[in-house]
Amino acid sequence: MPEQLIIAIDGPSGSGKSSVSRAVASRLGVGYLDTGAMYRALTWWCLDQGIDLDDRDAVTDAAGDYPLAIGTDPEDPVVQVGDTDVTQAIRTPEVTAAVTKVATNTDVRPILQLAQRDLMAAIAEDTGGCVAEGRDITTVVAPDAHVRILLTASEEARLRRRSTELHGHAEAEAVAATRDSIVKRDAADATVSQFTTASDGVVTVDTSDLDFEGSVDAVLTVVTDRTGRVPR
Ligand SMILES: Nc1ncnc2c1ncn2[C@@H]1O[C@H](COP(=O)(O)OP(=O)(O)O)[C@@H](O)[C@H]1O
Ligand SMILES: Nc1ccn([C@H]2C[C@H](O)[C@@H](COP(=O)(O)OP(=O)(O)O)O2)c(=O)n1
Questions:
Q1: What domain range includes position 214?
Q2: C or N terminus of the chain, fewer CB within 10 Å?
Q3: Does ligand 1 have an atom closer than 6 angstroms to the CB of 13?
C-alpha cells in the first residue's frame, strides 16, 4: 500500500469530477485539489485586473504571480485570490464563459501544471494523500499517480446534472441554456487536453447510470482494487 496515496481524476464537464472527488477524498481522509478552480481563479483575477484575455503574454505573466490561496479540505474547499474569497465568484456564468480562453493558452498551462504538481506533493505530505481532478491530471500533471481514473457520463446525463444544479430542474429550456457551457467548452478544452478517451493505464468509470453515491463507490472500488486502501 503506498504511503502517500495519489489519485488523479479527469473527465468532461458535469461528469461529477468535483463532487465525486471531494467525497472520495473525505472517505479516504486525504486532501483534495480542484485544478479547474485554479484556471477559474486566474480568469477571475484577469477580469478583475482588467487584463485582456486575448493578450496571451499578459495572461501568462498573471499566471506566474496571481495571489492564489486554494483550499484543499474536501469538506470546505475555499478559494481565495489576494484578500478576496472567490469561491462563489469563480462559478458565475461570466467566468465559466471566459475560462476557456485562459485554459487554452498553451503558455499558461505549464505554469499551472507545475504549481499543481507542487500543491499535490504538499497536500500529500500534510494529509497522507491527494485526490486531484481536472482535464490533464492523469496524463500530464500526475501520470505516475497510484490510481488514474477517467470519470465519464453521457452528454445527456451531464447536461441534466448541470441544468439541475444551475436551474433546479432539467426541463428542455434549462438544458438548452446549459448546453453551450458544457458542449462548446468541452470541445475547446479538448484541443489542449486528452480527456475524452482513457490513456493507457487509466480506468474509465462511466457514471451515466449511477447516482451520486454509486459514482463515489465505483471510484472507491477502483482505489481499493489498485492499492488495497479501504475507505472509512
Ligand atoms: N453520478 C451522479 N449522479 C447524479 N448527479 C451527480 C452525479 N455526479 C455528480 N452529480 C451532480 O452533478 C453536478 C455536476 O457535478 P460536478 O461534480 O460539478 O461535475 P464536474 O466537476 O465534472 O463538472 C453536481 O450538482 C453533482 O452533485
Ligand atoms: N486540469 C484542468 C482543469 C480545468 N481545465 C479547464 C477546463 C474548464 O473549461 C475550466 C474549468 O474547469 P472546471 O473543472 O471547473 O470545469 P467544470 O466545472 O467541470 O465545468 O478549466 C483545464 O483545462 N485543465
A1: 5-225
A2: C
A3: yes
